[in-house]
């Protein structure tokens, strides 16, 4: 097993290669913003600009510029700014509503709208971070407006998003909604004190997120009733281990912010260790994309495929859990997941990771980016892991239970 | 290679096993209609009733009852009638519109609506056939109302279906739309003379379908502009070989109805032989789910998976092409596809076919039915193939080019 410092170096080098890939291939010098539909070698195979991907890449570039000295390069900030300006200019469907498109043409005309809160979420994330990196308040003000809209929709009526109300459709909460509410609140709270509205939003997200822990915390369900009860059928039994682990490290951040040891322990047990135990393919390695809480076969065709983002979020969650309370098994889990991800997903020839492997671990789609894969999960996971490894290496004392080979 | 009569016997036996599976496991004696979410052994894992699947199973049962003597059993017709009555009672979203739900609760309350024409399409198909099987005109009248609504939406404004109009979204036609228009017209025309409205609808569907043949008939694109031009990006390059072949046998029926030899030859070359050539996996066998006309990697995660319905439609298309004009290579292709399908998809232990295999041909989802797989493609393909094989065997003369081993 590689040491912490070896992992730190490997991860830092991989982050450099990843950002180099996106800087080389994804920028649109004509209209600003980013192409995300990139072939293995970076060729643009579709010019559609996906709003999630715009906001996420603005976040990654701005965050790297602001927090990692070797990325403090003016061209990175300028690309982020061009992306942010593209979103401000083009993303909204009308000037009098915060609703934004899901996909835009290269020059910024709306192609598709989702009836969810996620496009606005990633606009907000990107612009808040861009405001921090540039020091320009107007970006953060725009972000806050979107954040409050998302929180309003999350608490309110789905009809505002254009979803029909149907008598047979039970009211439901998707795990992603409290997750993004919590993530946005934590983003806006970073380095801030006295922002009571965002503190309340973070608590709301954390509390609603806990409703997805069911059966005595033994399972994490993607959809529950607004009161936190199980829903019938496949929808109600659906689990997404990587998603649960992403929720885990977000909740752990809230627990640390609140100094709530009980919440922290619950996040690690139910949202990090549990989903890894239940979601890891014992035969071929890697986290499954979906599982059914009662052991039925999921109906998602990709249920047994290995998706890049799930492995990336698992790396973050396991290292965050270890940083929270160092126990040797957490570090061993991190090393196992990271080794699998580096072995199977990275492309040493062209940079960035493949996104979609078969159950057996073969590359199923050769694309490096698409409608749902851009410059985000790999870069964010590597950045967060590098930060956490750096922090662990700088701790004065060795961990109470030094890792040992199994 | 098995002879035609061996295939006829094998296919007839498989049809019996398939219908036995659905009769044993899918009926809801309480509310009528059919469960389609069935595990490998037939266990219901979700009670949601999908409207496509209701209409399709009503069609299969009614058609078998009406046209195949060994299926002329009262209980089969009663199950079809209970399904048809369930649709008439529950499928519509409101009494004053032909729009129906996509999914219903077990007791018939709407769960989900699609902004497409397909739920209404399958209500119409099922009820027209139920009307034929029972001799009750009211079912056929209800079907015709839905048929005319589908044709109206196909020619008219997508906004009637609730789709937003977005300035960056180019107007487009999906292959499925002219296909279902043609299929519905042919269904209503069966055994009918003098129905000029349906003859016009069939011609409209056939003409619009031909717009998807592009690049000198070398490719069949899933989406084109309403004027029949290629659309940009992945959407514009998307191909679905099984879908093209399904369109092929429908168009061949129109060509035979019109006595249009040129149209028939074009259907066989461009919609049957072309998609098989381009869509067959040379390494593992089976038709791919999706391909990109320029050779890029499709963005659909399941692009390289082998789906049951594509192989079933290919069997029908190849046999229909051979029946249209007997050439040895068409029969060899049929035998190759049917051998692959029987080897890989059928489940001799519990009946019916698996739906979803990995690229390599392993069962990826063990379910026998789900939101998009019910009692339809397997049963219809087996029924149509049995009919065509019977017809071929009864021809007085041997085919001009008798099949020979390669």
Task: Kindly summarize this structure in a few lines.
Chain A is mainly α and 406 residues long. Chain A contains 13 helices and 14 strands.
Structure, explained:
Two copies of one chain form a homodimer. By secondary structure, chain A is mainly α. In chain A, 53% of the residues lie in helices and 8% in strands. Chain A has helices spanning 4-25, 51-67, 74-90, 118-134, 137-155, 176-189, 196-210, 233-237, 241-258, 261-279, 308-324, 328-344, 377-394; strands at residues 37-38, 44-46, 49-50, 103-104, 110-112, 173-174, 213-214, 219-220, 223-224, 238-239, 291-292, 306-307, 356-357, 363-365. The first copy, chain A, has a three-stranded antiparallel beta sheet with strand order 3-4-5. The relative contact order of chain A is 0.12. The mean pLDDT of chain A is 96. Chains A and B meet through strand 4, strand 5 and helix 8 of A and strand 4, strand 5 and helix 8 of B.
Features:
8% strand, globular, AGE/CE (chains A, B), homodimer, EC 5.1.3.8 (chains A, B), three-stranded antiparallel beta sheet, isomerase (chains A, B), 406 residues
The string of secondary-structure elements of chain A, in order, is: HEEEHHEEHHEHHEEEHEHHEEHHEEH
Continuous helix count of chain A: 13
**Percent of residues in beta strands of chain A:** 5-15%
Shape of chain A: globular
Helix content of chain A: 40-55%
CA-atom Rg of chain A in angstroms: 20 Å
Uncertain segments of chain A are none
The strands making up the biggest β-sheet of chain A line up spatially as 3-4-5
Most extensive interface: pair and counts?
A: A-B, 46 and 46 residues
Oligomer: homodimer
Main β-sheet of chain A: number of strands, strand sense, barrel status? 3 strands, antiparallel
Distance between the termini of chain A: 10 Å
Mean pLDDT of chain A: 96
| Structure summary, number of beta strands of chain A | 14
Look at the helices and sheets of chain A and give the structural class. mainly alpha
EC number (chains A, B): 5.1.3.8
Pathway (chains A, B): Amino-sugar metabolism; N-acetylneuraminate degradation
Keywords (chains A, B): Isomerase
GO molecular function (chains A, B): N-acylglucosamine 2-epimerase activity
């Amino acid at each position: 097993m590689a040491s912490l410092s070896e992992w730190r170096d490997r991860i830092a080098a991989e982050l450099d290669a990843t950002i180099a890939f996106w800087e080389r291939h994804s920028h649109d010098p004509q209209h600003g913003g980013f192409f995300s539909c990139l072939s293995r070698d970076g060729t643009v195979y579709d010019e559609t600009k996906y709003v999630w991907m715009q906001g996420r890449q603005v976040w990654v570039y701005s965050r790297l510029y602001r927090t990692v000295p070797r990325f403090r390069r003016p061209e990175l900030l300028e690309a982020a700014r061009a992306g942010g300006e593209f979103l401000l200019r083009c993303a909204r469907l009308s000037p009098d509503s915060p609703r934004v498109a899901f996909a835009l043409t290269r020059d910024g005309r709306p192609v598709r709208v989702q009836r969810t809160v996620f496009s606005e979420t990633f606009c907000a994330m990107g612009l808040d971070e861009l405001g921090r990196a540039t020091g320009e308040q107007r970006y953060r003000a725009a972000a806050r407006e979107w954040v409050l809209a998302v929180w309003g929709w999350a608490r309110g009526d789905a009809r505002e998003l254009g979803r029909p109300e149907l008598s047979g459709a039970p009211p439901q909460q998707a795990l992603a909604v409290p997750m993004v509410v919590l993530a946005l609140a934590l983003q806006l709270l970073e380095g801030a004190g006295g922002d009571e509205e965002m503190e309340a939003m973070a608590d709301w997200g954390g509390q609603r997120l806990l409703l997805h822990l069911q059966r005595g915390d033994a399972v994490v369900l993607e959809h529950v009733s607004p009161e936190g009860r199980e829903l019938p059928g496949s929808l109600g039994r659906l689990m997404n281990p990587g998603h649960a682990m992403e929720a885990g490290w977000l909740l752990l951040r809230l627990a640390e912010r609140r100094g709530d040891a009980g919440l922290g322990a619950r996040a690690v047990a139910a949202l990090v260790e549990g989903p890894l135990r239940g979601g890891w393919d014992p035969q071929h390695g890697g986290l499954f994309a979906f599982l059914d809480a009662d052991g039925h076969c999921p109906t998602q065709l990709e249920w047994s495929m290995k998706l890049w983002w799930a492995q990336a979020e698992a790396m973050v969650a396991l290292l965050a859990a270890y940083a929270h309370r160092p126990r040797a098994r957490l570090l061993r889990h991190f090393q196992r997941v990271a080794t699998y991800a580096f072995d199977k997903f990275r492309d040493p020839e062209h940079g960035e990771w493949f996104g979609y492997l078969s159950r057996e671990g073969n590359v199923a789609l050769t694309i490096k980016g698409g409608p749902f894969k851009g410059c985000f999960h790999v870069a964010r996971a590597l950045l967060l892991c590098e930060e956490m490894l750096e922090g662990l290496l700088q701790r004065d004392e060795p961990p109470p239970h030094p890792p040992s080979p199994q």
